[in-house]
Amino acid sequence: MKLNLLVIRTSNPELLKDQYEKLGFEFEYHKHGNGPFHYAAAQNGFVFEIYPLTKSMEKADNSLRLGFDVDNLRSKIVTLENSNWNILSKPTETEWGLTALIQDLDGRKVELKNATNK
Question: What is the Cα–Cα distance from 43 to 68, expressed in whole angstroms?
């Protein structure tokens, strides 16, 4: 089994899109049928979408924890330190490899793992 779609919701899709682009995603703005406009990024058979909150939602769900492999994790963290990402832990060697923990504007924790040995 392989994850091919992940949808998150936020009160400010534009700001969150800008934030996740710093991780390397390239988003397009579109909509399907009668659904709302949203941002979608597709790479390596995985689609990541950022939707606005539904009318019944008061705030984004920040209990979801995400994880992404990124190239050159140490330099990526340096770049993210000068952005609106909250760095919770700097790159550390773990049993799963070099990892770091960051937090998006809605409070979701995002684990970054080094995809390369650099």
Answer: 12
pLDDT of residue 117: 54
Query: In the structure encoding, which two tokens stand for residue 100, read together?
Result: 């770091």
Domains within the chain, CATH numbers bracketed: 5-55+63-114 (3.10.180.10)
Separation CA 11–CA 9 (nearest Å): 7
Residue 56 reports pLDDT greater than 50: yes
Q: Which helix (H) or strand (E) holds 67?
A: strand 65-70
Name the β-bridge partners of 103.
86, 109
Per-residue pLDDT of 85-117, as tens digits, reads 999 999 999 998 999 999 999 999 999 999 865
pLDDT of 100: 98
Cβ atoms of 9 and 53 closer than 8 Å: yes
What's the angle, vertex CA 71, arms to CA 5 and CA 4, rounded to 5? Answer: 10
